[in-house]
Amino acid sequence: MRRILIHMDPERDREQQELLAAADALFPDAGRQLHVLLIHGTCDALKGKVDAILDVRDHHIDGSDARQMCGVMAALHQTHAYDAILMADDLLGRDCAPCLAVRIEAAIVTSVSAIGNEQGKAIIERPTHVGQAIGRFEADPARPLVLTIQPRRFVPIDQAERPTAILRPQLPNLAASDIRRIARQEIDRPDILDSDILISGGRGVARDFAALQPLADALGGAVSASRAMVDAGFADRSQQVGQSGKRVSPRLYLALGINGAIQHVVGLADAEHIISVNTNVDAPICSLSDIVVKGDALTFVDKLLNKIKEEQSNGTV
Per-residue pLDDT for 20 more than 80? Predict the structure, then answer.
């Protein structure tokens, strides 16, 4: 009997379905148990789709603290002896997964983009060399696996109905969280992980970063940013694309005034199409782009937005 533990955010429905699809691809044959770990949350949509929901409500545990989450999952592994532990490839997952793999002596693959099966063995793929190559890894069935799963890589599938047990695990005393909440900010903008179109700004749009939002609204997308813009206070941390931000996979990534340091482009290696607008056509991001427009990014934004409005008034879009 194969056992899989999946750490899920109870508020991210799409991510839940993709993680379930990844678990199904990892062990496609019958005879597996799916356990879902939820921290301070409930999710009725998972009932009937997994074998057990591990409902952790200890007020001493902070679900955003990678050290504590590592301790929680290590304790659960000691009890249930999981064959694989899956989590989202986000900031928490990338912080937690390596520590967890060391603690439970597991193999680890981060940023998983595909899972196949050859001769009864799981074959795991992840992008390498800034998305220019694919690494393939054969899972050792004798060792547990820790995987972080990239968004939008696994197509949700219908799960067979099954009885779901609600468990309240008894966890050992964990070290107090080092994270101190100083404020809570409600964000009403769409999550860049869920957007098919991203209008992303760098230093080249610093003089009027707010001009990107009307274009994003017109295209049905969201605004994202480079780290430089976040550090300068023009954009929120939740909008940051890159190694220290979010790894996105939109259908279209419009890079406005972005140079494209390696730390940024690793976050958009899975974008289907990239259009760059830059005064410097030798900027690193231009070599990765499908289309490069030489010129001022804000002038481009203004002209494109006017063109969209013109087409809308003519009824052609």
Answer: yes
Query: Between 183 and 270, whose confidence is greater?
Result: 270
Q: Residue 30 has what pLDDT?
A: 64
Look over the chain and give the mean of its residue pLDDT values, rounded to a whole number.
Answer: 90
Least confident of 7-21, 61-75, 170-184, 230-244: 170-184
Rounded to two decimals, what is the model's pTM? 0.78
**CATH 3.40.50.1220 in the chain, residue ranges:** 192-314
Rg (CA), the chain: 21
Report CA-CA distances (Å) from 52 to 35, 190, 280. Answer: 5, 31, 54
Q: Where in the chain is the domain with CATH 3.40.50.620?
A: 2-167
The DSSP-derived string for 233-274 is: TSS-GGGBBSTTSB----SEEEEES----HHHHGGGTT-SEE
**What gap in Å lies between CA 149 and CA 172, rounded to an integer?**
28
Do residues 115 and 157 lie in contact, with contact meaning Cβ atoms separated by under 8 Å? no
Does domain 2-167 fall under CATH 3.20.20.300? My reply is no
**Which contacts qualify for 308-316: CB closer than 8 Å, 24 or more apart?**
308/215, 308/218, 308/219, 309/218
Fold adopted by 192-314? Rossmann fold (3.40.50)
